[in-house]
Amino acid sequence: MSGKFGTSGLRGLVTSMTPELITAHVQAFLAACDTGGVLCVGRDLRPSSPRIADDVIAAARAKGCRVIDCGAVPTPALALAAQAVEGGAVMVTGSHIPADRNGLKFYVRSGEISKADEAAILAHLEADHAHTQHGTLEQDGGVNDRYVARFVDAFGRGALRGQRIGLYAHSAVGRDALARILTDLGAEVIELGRSETFIPVDTEAVAPEVRVRITDWVKTHGLHALVSTDGDSDRPLLADETGRVIPGDILGQITTETLGAETIATPISSNSGVTMKGFKDVQLTQIGSPYVIAAMENVQGRVVGYEANGGFLLGFAAQGPAGPLAPLITRDCTLPLLTVLYASREGGVAARVAQEPPVVTVADRLQEVDQRKSRVLLETWQNNPTARAAFLASLGKQELGMDLTDGLRMTLTDGDVIHVRPSGNAPELRLYIETKDPASAEKLLTQALVQLNHAL
């Protein structure tokens, strides 16, 4: 059986995502996890997603499950729909990875699957799931409408009046819903870069050519800001009035403060400036939303979570400018985008971001790197101080200490941070840099990518 099942669900090449593979994982999920006998199914805009969604639906109905086909919808909108019917969900998406790959994201009644759910699904994977029943199939064409209403009701019509916002639509499944939300909130929306061919957009490692395009769009159209998302629209992208892309963890910091949250769960790769802002508690986790969710579940009160990619998880009943926001414990792109735009409506996004602690994080990755090769390199550096020192010396750096919470995070004598981590769901080696100013961060990122590639 091919395909990889882990923190982000099932991922693999489209050629490996066979009906047999899909059926085995969906039926193992239904047998192992609490869905209440109801399964909402959604998909992104990849060419392979409709076929795979049909396979998911067939597998669930064969187990007697009530299935609700939600069509092409953002992942957080699907999670909201499942929450409303107290059921589970499967989202067909490969997120930000190329179109020759795809995957499944699984949701139980309480939200995204946990690490314990993951283990239970794996334990049921080889079981004989007989096709003896025939569950019902319904269509729900109102998922996007309810997702739009969630934010329009919370922020209020006219909340962004006077703002000229660019929307890099590309092939994001949430592009039309986001356009509707911004328009209903009073913004003038300029759609840019719409594509009927799938384009993989990674909001955590925005490609240099995309950054140049964004800067040109902002200048040409006189934009106050530009927004976008990844393929399944659970991770945000925001550029300010100069065209500079704002890191997702900075969006998380601002959103957390604006909502009045007290406790934050966020991966160790996030900007460490959050620890300087006076929140009641900041819990640093391994990278991946299941780890963030697990940390959120261990505390009470006004808790939120966010990742360096910008995906924001709301763990309490919050209050927007015009109305309530119910908890939604799954990665969402829209809440951080709207919150930062609203908080910036007087002085601009750049000025609001400048109020954050002077800590700069940037990230990129080496693609098509065999994960075994990445693990060997990391194990060598973890166990061999001389090899680690040689890598840092090539960058003119020395190590002060290291952290092995997730990958290898090296704190340097000058206060900078270099964090190397193999992706858990793609053939990529991730690199995170933290410094005190943008210029040094970009310089160190460029140099470290070259040396990392050389080390491989």
Folded structure, characterized:
The mean pLDDT is 93. This protein folds into 3 domains: 4-141, Alpha-D-Glucose-1,6-Bisphosphate, subunit A, domain 3 (Alpha-D-Glucose-1,6-Bisphosphate, Chain A, domain 3, 3-Layer(aba) Sandwich); 145-353, Alpha-D-Glucose-1,6-Bisphosphate, subunit A, domain 3 (Alpha-D-Glucose-1,6-Bisphosphate, Chain A, domain 3, 3-Layer(aba) Sandwich), CATH 3.40.120.10; 360-455, 2-Layer Sandwich (TATA-Binding Protein). It has helices spanning 19-32, 49-61, 75-84, 115-124, 143-155, 175-184, 208-221, 248-259, 289-297, 334-343, 349-353, 371-383, 385-393, 438-455; strands at residues 4-6, 9-13, 38-43, 66-72, 88-92, 101-108, 111-112, 137-139, 164-168, 188-192, 225-229, 236-239, 245-246, 263-267, 281-285, 303-306, 312-314, 318-319, 324-325, 328-332, 360-367, 399-403, 408-412, 417-422, 428-435. Helix 1 crosses helix 4 (115-124). Helix content is 35%, strand content 26%. The protein is α/β, with parallel strands linked by helices and 456 residues long.
Short description:
The protein is α/β, with parallel strands linked by helices. It has helices at residues 19-32, 49-61, 75-84, 115-124, 143-155, 175-184, 208-221, 248-259, 289-297, 334-343, 349-353, 371-383, 385-393, 438-455; strands at 4-6, 9-13, 38-43, 66-72, 88-92, 101-108, 111-112, 137-139, 164-168, 188-192, 225-229, 236-239, 245-246, 263-267, 281-285, 303-306, 312-314, 318-319, 324-325, 328-332, 360-367, 399-403, 408-412, 417-422, 428-435.
